[in-house]
Amino acid sequence: MQTPFHLPTLDIPTLLIVYQVVAMLMAVVTLGGAWSARGRHGLWLWAGAFGVIALAQLLRALLVSFGAPTPWLSIGHIGGVISSALVLLAVRSFLGLRLHRLPVILFTGLACLASVLVVSTGQPQWSLLSLPLTLAASALLRGFALPPIIRSWNSRGGFALGLMLVDLSLSVAAYALRAITVTPAFAGSLEQAVTVNGLWLLLFIVLLTGQAFAVLLLVNSELQRSLWSMVEIDPLTSLLNRRGMKNRIGRLRQRGLVAKAAPSVVVAMIDFDHFKQINDRHGHAAGDAVLRGLGRLLLNHVRPNDLAVRMGGEEFAVVWQDVSAEDAVKLAERLRQSVEDELFGSEFGAIQCTVSIGIAMPRGQEEALDDLLGRADAALYKAKREGRNRVERAY
Ligand SMILES: Nc1nc2c(ncn2[C@@H]2O[C@H](COP(=O)(O)OP(=O)(O)OP(=O)(O)O)[C@@H](O)[C@H]2O)c(=O)[nH]1
Questions:
Q1: Which of 250, 266, 323, 390 sits a CA distance of 20 to 30 A from 332?
Q2: Which of 275, 281, 355, 389 most suits a substitution to test ligand 1, by most atoms within 8 Å of the C-beta?
Q3: HSE value, Cβ hemisphere, 13 Å, CA-based, for 146
């Protein structure tokens, strides 16, 4: 079959050297990133993915110049499959998913073995199968990394993840199409197949560079995220702190999920009764265990869009969304009862405590969050004055 268009002649060995140099550069840049991020987010695996391509091409070039036996020359193809396996593992590690290493290793091993076997026959019609075979294996391995990235992008969004998604999707398509089009049967002749492969190499150099940029952007945004969570999360209870709550509500308002002081938002301020006595009687460590226990209990009482917050000391807050005033009173009462029924376990024995709760609903669209919190606080102190272990509502 003759292709209807004229393909430019490309110097494949030169392109392979460029591919190798770019991969080497990307490996060095990603290694630097992995080093500064202490290897978090699967960065060593990303660096490995670029490094393997660079090393495989280098080895191949050396073997060719030393006149190594033919089976060794499939090392470049094998490097591509191993690199794709590392990309799959890197994506899972980056997204914090379990790494199913064994099936990935087995599949990669089989693809590499098949490549060596077909090249070892010494028969051109078999040897030529090595490239499409390993390219197809790479397309599959990278394809398996797509669904978790798509899910993550749907929930998190972000430019860096979007860029990774685009690059990975393009590379899955490119590996699959390259596997088909580099076969002489498709290209029309062996010469045409070599030229088509050269054109693909050009695209692969671009995709490789795009992937390295996406990795670095992703790591940068992850480091920023973890820095923010250190600022916004209370280390003792892992709940949001006061700043985290304000930022979260600000972000929800920006995304239009919460209208400015929407009337359906209810704030509950929660404060332990006589917490000082718990510390005095059982010790500070037992007090900490009780605070952690309330943190867990609050998380069980809120839905994904609600917020559970440690405001400071033994004061907590819950922000319920989409609830009526009547339902909020019921929710707060149920929460108060749960704390009363709970035996907060610690190594010093079970500790029983109670909380006082003040709840407030926005007066109108314009009430600022601080004013709302202030009124919930005032209701809380009314609950304390009226005898503690009770819920009071601000009007
Ligand atoms: N263990 C522990 N105790 C804390 C922490 N933060 C604040 N506290 C203690 O919480 C206690 C709060 O005491 P008070 O403000 O007098 O309040 P209270 O004893 O709960 O009395 P009422 O609120 O009036 O019922 C103090 O003894 C603080 O030391 C903490 O992180 N861990």
A1: 250
A2: 275
A3: 15
Atom index in ligand 1 nearest the CA of residue 275 equals 20
What are the structural domains of the chain? 12-230 (1.20.1070), 242-393 (3.30.70.270)
For residue 314, the CA-to-ligand 1 centroid distance in Å is: 5
Atom of ligand 1 nearest to the CA of 388: 25
Enter the tokens of residue 142: 């990278």
Q: What is the pTM of this model?
A: 0.62
345 Cβ neighbours under 8 A, 6+ residues apart: 289, 293, 351
pLDDT for the residue 80 = 94
> How many Cβ atoms from other residues are within 10 Å of residue 261's Cβ?
19
Q: What digits encode the pLDDT tens for the residues 372-382?
A: 899 999 999 99
Measured by CA distance, the residue closest to atom 24 of ligand 1 is 274
Q: What is the ipTM of this complex?
A: 0.94
The dihedral over CA atoms of 335, 340, 294, 156, expressed in degrees to the nearest 10, equals -20
Q: Is the CB of 46 under 6 A from ligand 1?
A: no
- How far apart CA 91 and CA 42 sit, in angstroms, is 7
Q: Which of 314, 273, 319, 317 is nearest to 291 (CA)?
A: 314
Q: What is the 3-state secondary structure (H, E, C) of 181-239?
A: HCCHHHHCCHHHHHHHHHHHHHHHHHHHHHHHHHHHHHHHHHHHHHHHHHHHECCCCCC
Residues 102-119: tens digit of each pLDDT: 999 999 999 999 999 998
- Minimum CA distance residue for ligand 1 atom 11: 276
